[in-house]
């Protein structure tokens, strides 16, 4: 596949998803059964309508059964499944039904709330539909087949994905909304975060704890003592995930994160990648100045590379009230971000330091514990 995008002045090659791999391998199997000849490549139409020529390997066939595999090519987007082999077995049957299932290395859903029913193989609806349509087109209307998708490396590769958070156990998911992998795109990552949020909502939760990552998750469970069941990662996509909580009609959101990450939100920065927006020192200096901090302290804080280093200076100078001020601004900015759309969402904030622990909260911690127990 030779299709490219440009990002920050660099050229990146696109790839194709595990769903497209499975569809291509399945089509190759059907063609080998029907022609009794080896197939080395097939043309498939992706879920997004793009026509691709996909190479095929590991071919075996007999009168009614065939095996083929396609190597996942993520282009220049090196994700958890890049380079792994997606295998498919197809066996013709006497019925007219085409049945699709997952085998070794394909995860199975163990929790309600995602787009795959409990007990089913983690083959998402869009690629499932595409695989079945691809096989049906090659097979014709009057024949049936059993299709088995499997991935020998799947269980190991799944450890690098969010599947366990979604209750998908035993392997990878077969994914692909468009069938194409676009390098440097955050869309897949966002969708996986949304899936976890949707699962929590479908399980009946109406309040959620958003954390930027592992530090926040650990603080919620081990310092605050809250249940892990309410926690969902928002990564750097603070604004996106806040909008998602509103779309899904969550009533309460508690944002818990390291001060160095959440401080940006107090200034209206809702995508917190450092490469995109790093105004931590400037935000601290401005808020300290409004509290009357002396110029030498402001100059020292402005030169700090981390909020942890700045925190030492702030504590020594007796200006730790700045954390309460900024926590309230994070809350206010976040609620303002959502206020023009319904339903309303109540937001609270807890922020901490790895060196000094809890820094500030918009409600008394004991009150929050009562609300979130």
TrEMBL record:
This enzyme's EC code(s): 2.1.1.195
Keyword DNA damage attributed: no
UniProt catalytic activity: Co-precorrin-5B + S-adenosyl-L-methionine = Co-precorrin-6A + S-adenosyl-L-homocysteine
Alphabetically ordered keywords of this record: Cobalamin biosynthesis, Methyltransferase, S-adenosyl-L-methionine, Transferase
Cited Gene3D superfamilies: CbiD-like
Listed pathway(s): Cofactor biosynthesis; adenosylcobalamin biosynthesis; cob(II)yrinate a,c-diamide from sirohydrochlorin (anaerobic route): step 6/10
Top EC class of this enzyme: transferase
InterPro entries reported in the protein's UniProt record: CbiD, CbiD_sf
Domain of life of the source: Bacteria
The keyword S-adenosyl-L-methionine is annotated on this UniProt entry: yes
Similarity section: Belongs to the CbiD family.
Stated name of the protein: Cobalt-precorrin-5B C(1)-methyltransferase
Organism, scientific name: Listeria marthii FSL S4-120
Gene that this sequence comes from: cbiD
